[in-house]
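Re-run with default settings, no changes from the original entry. Doing this only to confirm the output is reproducible before filing.
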Amino acid sequence: MSTGVKAKKPAARKSAAKNMAKMGVSFERDVSTSAFPAEHPPVNFGKIGVLLVNLGTPDGHDKKNMRRYLKQFLSDRRVIETPRIIWWPLLNGIILNTRPKKSGALYASIWNEERNESPLRTFTRSQREQLAHAFAAHDNVIVDWAMRYGNPSVESRMEALQEAGCERILVFPLYPQYAAATTATVNDVAFQALMKMRWMPALRTVPPYHDDPAYIEALAVSIERHLASLDFEPEHIIASYHGIPKSYFDKGDPYHCQCQKTSRLLKERMGWDDGYLITTFQSRFGPEEWLQPYTDKTVEKLAHEGVKRIAVVNPGFSSDCLETLEEIAEEVRVEFESNGGEHFSHIPCLNDGPEGVGLIDHIVRRELGGWV
């Protein structure tokens, strides 16, 4: 139905905007306190929040802290899709009574004793600090960090940003490749936090960046620097990604495809021959089939075939953590060497180095477009 009013064409709208600007009319919001009447109570507003979110970490590697952390992690329906009637007895009757001690010992082997925290917490905090410094010129931007499981929680930091006056928040799940069990569950809790707020800020979430040229370049530069420091030349590079159950992929999760694309783009950027870079998946849990080939089985097979020198990189992790520092740098190394391998190297994640922080800065500035 026609209203009888003709909408202005884009060119006409631009012309009108220019004329308004010439007359001194601003299209920017008035965020000064003069916008409020004198009797208005104090309130913070006009800020933009950036929340970096990683997977999670226990507060300590003792049994109590490990049990609390594992219960939160393994109770997430995005992580474990097994029907509750089957999963709850297993989780509460067996897993939470046996796994905390074992997992605690693994965490103890990589623990940052100086700061009494896991490396993932150390790296994520440092990424936040460096990003905040990079945005120092924008006094309306507040950078914070959180963990999906453990502390600081996403909800607590969302509340803190809102109370600090953030009317817009960019949530950045620090996972290059999308999976429902990682990116989606971060977004879940962010939106759940909004549901409890009276004054709800606008929210943006960072999409996966598995094929972002800046990400591929950051990986390549980091790998090149590490390989140059070795006293041997690897016969193969293994790109080991965290696995997911194959059933999740069969239901439509794009994670496997995005991992494969990252590997392909990395191979092309590095100029490696076909077969030199091998994509594998690690960290499987339980009896169900997960994405294959498995990292440990692949490394064992290579050693049996006579391969003596390999290096392993973890493109799916933004920071080193238990799965890279213990599982790859320790367990997989032993697997390779005990089956005949001689030279093994784990290539560190981007962490809080110049490539890692530079990549985060690049993505944040892009996703803040129109806000900053």
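Residues 213-347 form a domain with the Rossmann fold fold (CATH 3.40.50.1400). Strands lie at 47-57, 141-150, 166-173, 202-205, 236-242, 277-282, 309-313, 343-347.
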